[in-house]
Design brief:
- The protein is an alpha/beta fold.
- It is 42% helix and 17% strand.
- The strands form 6 sheets. Strands 18-19-17-16-20-23-24 form a 7-stranded mixed beta sheet. The chain has a 5-stranded mixed β-barrel with strand order 1-3-4-5-6.
- Strand 5 and strand 6 form a beta hairpin.
- The protein is elongated, with a radius of gyration of 51 Å.
Amino acid sequence: MPEEEKNETIENITMPAVALRGLTVYPKMMVHFDVGREASVKAVEEAMSLNHPIFLVAQKDIRVEAPDQEHLFGMGTVAVVRQILRLPGKTVRVMVEGQYRARLKEMVKLEPYLVVRVELAEGSASYEGKTNSLRAEAAIRQAYDLFDQYSDLSPKNASAEMLMNIMSSEDAGYIADFIAQNVSMRVLDKQAVLEELRPVQRLNKVNRLLRREVEILEMEQSIQRRVQENMTQNQKDAFLREQVRVIQEELGEDGDNEIAAYRRQIAAAKLPEEVEAKLIKEVIHLEKQSFGSAEASVLRNYLDVCLELPWTKGSKERVNVQAARKILDADHFGLEKVKERILEFLAVKQLAPDLKGQIICLVGPPGVGKTSIGMSMARALNRQMARISLGGVHDEADIRGHRKTYVGAMPGRIINAIRQAGTKNPLLLLDEIDKMGSDLRGDPAAALLEVLDGEQNSTFRDHFIELPFDLSDVLFITTANTTSTIPKPLLDRMEVIELPSYTDEEKLQIAKRHLLPKQLKRHGLKKNQVRLTDDAIREIIVSYTRESGVRVLERELGALCRKVAMGIVSQEYKQAHVNGDNVEKFLGPRKFHPEKKGLENQVGLVNGLAWTSVGGTLLEAEVNVIPGNGKVELTGNLGNVMKESARAAFTYIRSRATQLGMEPGFYKEKDIHIHFPEGAVPKDGPSAGVTITTAMVSALTGIPVRGDVAMTGEVTLRGRVLPIGGLREKSMAALRNGIHTVFIPKDNEDDLKEIDQTVRNALQFIPVSHVDQVLANALERPPLAKPDAEGGDMPLEGTTPSVQPSAPRA
C-alpha cells in the first residue's frame, strides 16, 4: 500500500481504548499487564475477537474508577492484543505489542467500554533506523554506559538480555523507548518520554532520567550497607552482653544490669514529674548505647549527678529564737547587730513558716568573723551548710556549669554545693563575693543575679543538669570586705549588714573565750600549763597586731603556744607564766610601738583619721611653708578627691587670711608643700579636709598643733564641716595611738551611739560644724586677726578662744 494511502487510513481512526493505571506502553515493545475493570476487560476482548488495534493511554489519577477524557493523558500508544489469559476471579492478563504513538482526539462512548477516536502522531509510524549525526551517536553511547551501570546496580530489573538488546540497536528512538519501558520511572517521566517525538531529544531525556535513577540506586545501596554494618555491630554487642550475663550467673554475681538499677533509683527518688520524665528518657538513650562508648559514659555521669541531688529532701529547720541566741552567743562575742538580725529572721520564720530563703551580705574588714558567723547561723537554724569561695572566679560556667556534652563537663558551684549539702534547704555561704572578676568567658556576677533573686531562683537551670532546680528554700549568706566592687544590680538583691572592727576589749574577750582554748587544744597543751594574764593579751594586741579583726592575734597566740610547747618538751619549765613584761621572751621584739600619751605639739603636723579595709588608722598630715611664688605641692600618693580637698582648704584659707592673722597676699610669696607619710600607700577621700586646713593654718601662722588631738571631716570653700563615714573604726584608731580628743563633724554626732562604750569613755569627742571651731581648740592658741579699733585682738568668727572641749557624747 502506498505511504500516502496508509497515512490516510490510520488518521482519525476509531478503536477501543484501555485506561492504564501506573503503566505506559511504548511502540515496538511487548508488554503484559493485568486488567481488572469490567469496561477494560470488554475492550480487550472486543479488540482480540475482531483483530482490531486497541488504544492504550495512561490515566492521570489512578484513583478514578470510571475515567473520561479529562482524566487521560493526550498521548498514548496504538497496540495489538497478542494474548489473553484468564486468572481466578474477574481479572485477565493481557499481552500487547505497541505499534505507534497516537493522540487522543475525542471520547466516542463510555459504555460498555471506552471507544475513542485517535490520530497518528507525526513521525511515529515507524522508527527511522540508524542515525548518522554525531549528536545521536553521543546520546546512544551515553545510554549504553548508563544502562550498563543500572544493570550492575539493579540486576533483578535489568538482565543481560536487555543490555544485549540495547547494544545491538543503533536507533536512538528505539533505545529510548526500550529503556523507558524497562526501567522504573515515575509515570509523569514516562509520559514525557512518550510525548517526545524527536528521537535524539527523546534519548537525551531518557539519559537524564536514567542518570537520576542510577544515583538513587547508589544512595540506596550505601544506606543499605551502613544499616547492615550497624545491624552486624548490634548483633555482636547483643551476643557479647548475653555472654557477660551468663558468665555473671556462673560466678554467682548479681545479674541485674545498670539500666534496671537506674530505673529503680528514679522510681524510689520520688522526683518532680518533669525531672523523672527527663531521666527516664536519658536511661532509654543509655540502654541503646554500647557499654564502653563515650556517649554512654557521659549519660552515666549525668544520671549519677541528677540522682544525687536532693530534689525533695529537706532538713527540719529549728525556729527556736532562745536556742539560736544561746548558740550565737556561745560562738561569738559581740556582733550584737548581726545576731539581732538573725534572731529577727527566726522570729518571722516562726510566725510565717512559708517564708522563702533570704539573701544576707555580711560586710566588714578581714578577720572579724564573717565566715564563722555564717557557720554559726547554719548550726542555730539546724541547716546543712556548704561554703563556696568566689574569690578569683571569672568564668560564668563556674556558677552555671558546662553543657554535659563537653569533655570533663560538670555542674556549677551552686548545684555542686547543693549536692554536697544533701538537702534542698541548706545555708550556702558565698565567700568573698566582692572579689569576683570577669573576662571573655562571661561575668559570674551576672549569673548570680538569678541565683540571688528570690523571685527567680525557684526555677534555676544549671547548664549541666538542664532541669529547673528550686533554690527558693536556700538561705544565702554572702561575705565581702567592701561593697564598692560589687555590681549595683547584685548588691540591690542583698540585705547588707556591716560588721565593725573589734575594740581592744572585745579582742581581749575573744582571745580568752575562743582563740586561746582553740590554740591550746591544737598544740596539745593543757590549760594549767599556760598562764596568760590579761595584761599579756593586751600587750599582744597593742604591740604585735595592727588589724580590725583577730586573725593575726590568733596567729600570734599560736606562735606563743609553740614556744611554750618547745619549752615544756625541752624541760626548761613545766608551766609557763606570761604577763605584760615577759611577752617579748615568747614572741620576740615588739612589731608596733604605740605612741605615748601627751604627744609633742608641733607646727604644721596634724593627726588625721582614715578608714581602710582592715579598719581605722592614724593619718598624719605635714605642711611646710618656704619662700616662693605661690606654688602648692601635694605628695604622698594622693587620689583626685584628696587633692581637691587640699585645693578647697587652700581657697578657704586665702578667703579668711585677714581673720586668721595672715597677710592677704601671703600666697604670692610663699610655696606650700603638703605631704602625707607612707608614700607607697595610696590615699584618697574627702575626710582629710579638716586635717589639711588645720595643718596649713598652723604652718602659715607658726602656731603649734596639739599632739593629743585627731580630727576628721570634709571642708567646703566656706569652711563648713561635712559628715564622713567609718567613725567607729577611726575612733578606735585614735584610742590605739594615745589620742585624747577627736574632732568630728556635727552631723556625725548620732553615730557616736554605735561606738563601743569603752572607746566613748576613753576619748573626748568634739562635734564641730565649722573649721573655725577646730582651729580655736586644736591649736595651742587661736590665730589672731588684725587689731580692732580699740587695739584688741579680734577672735575668729563663730568661735571664742575660751571654748572648752565638750564632754564625751553618748
